[in-house]
Amino acid sequence: MMSALAPRSAYLHIPFCHRRCFYCDFAVVPLGDRVNAQNGPGSLTIKAYLELILKEIRSSPPGPPLATIYIGGGTPSLLTPDQVRCLLDALADRFGVQRGAEITLEMDPASFSLEELNALVRHGVNRVSLGGQSFDDVVLAGLGRRHRRKDVLEACHWMQRFLQDGRLRSWSLDLIRNLPNQDDEAWADVLTQAVELQPPHLSIYDLSVEPGTVFARREQQGVLMLPDEDGAADRIAFTTQYLSDAGYCRYEISNFSRPGHASRHNRVYWSGAGWWAFGLGATSAPWGERFARPRTREAYAEWLNRQELDGPHSSLLSQSATPLSLEDRLLVGLRCREGVDLQQQAQHCGWTAHRCSLHLPQLAERWEQFLNQGLMERRGGRWRLTDPLGMALSNQILVEVVQWWESLPIHADPPTRTGVLRRPESSPPGVQG
After folding, report:
1. pTM tops 0.85
2. What long-range pairs does 297-300 form, CB within 8 A, spacing at least 24?
3. How far is CA 249 from the centre of its chain?
4. Which end of the chain is more exposed for a tag (fewer CB within 10 A), N or C?
5. How far is 323 from 1, CA to CA, in rounded Å?
């Protein structure tokens, strides 16, 4: 069984940051506030890593021209424009790039100049994801961020100017909600300032305290004052209503856009389509099987050397293609505004009519409670989370998907091309970038 479509998207992971933020557990390499990618502090580390990721791109199995490219991190804007151009040229040489492709670069305020932004656009970047997170200097310092309010405002004004004169097709502003000591008034002020800046796209993430982070240690010490669950849910509902009134559509749990500005690259993840990925810690799934690269530079370099000796990892080869599991399709599909059609998704995964009639009613029965609670709604065969209540409490529904999947007999999962029955991971893939 082959994947429905060959992969036409690529993610590149640039792990370097000035410093690690207090909430971050990503695969990043802090290089200090004085880092300079060309000839200054950290430049040799960056150049050595770029040689590794270029090596991986050049040794990748071929594929069709790319329709989306996303360079995330880390802080990719620490690279020089010429270094970004070199990465884009390598992708173009290996795969080709479709005319009109969406090419996104993550950028942090205060990590680039107006001159550098101009150069990046000339080299092909046409969408920017700006990591603002907050407009309050005290809050930014409390998150471990390097930039300040004035840097966010300046960068947003640059983005909007580039959008208006056609040098950018779109740009997005990232914000973090339900931060320590954040009340309703403070969050309403953040949204007001964000809308005044007119970003065509907003990504809003609720703070998640991850193991091993500074925030995790503070929580264990009892000094991290997080909002209570009821207050957090109220702010999620307020966000949806406020942004809806301002002309934004919530097209995915964490993403809002004005018409025509939804992220095409992130849509790839939510649709269950395949994508390439390059760089340490990056997760790819070009042909239906997710594969995560090592999270340290040393282990990543060793893995690349093994690829040269043994050939590409099996998940990167089209002849190893398997359909994305139904569990994965549901876990990512439910995040989107349109939800999922159970019957249709099962058929895409190769489920027979008998399998569908035997196992899908069990999941529908599990979801009935959420219909009654107003967390889900059903129209015909399509199920979706309600907004804002269902999206605010989505983990409850997603846990039921995992538990239903794990309760199935092994024969419920269609065979792979090799005929070996396969049970995939139960955890949903994270959005990159």
Report:
1. yes
2. 297/15, 297/29, 297/49, 297/52, 300/52
3. 18
4. N
5. 6
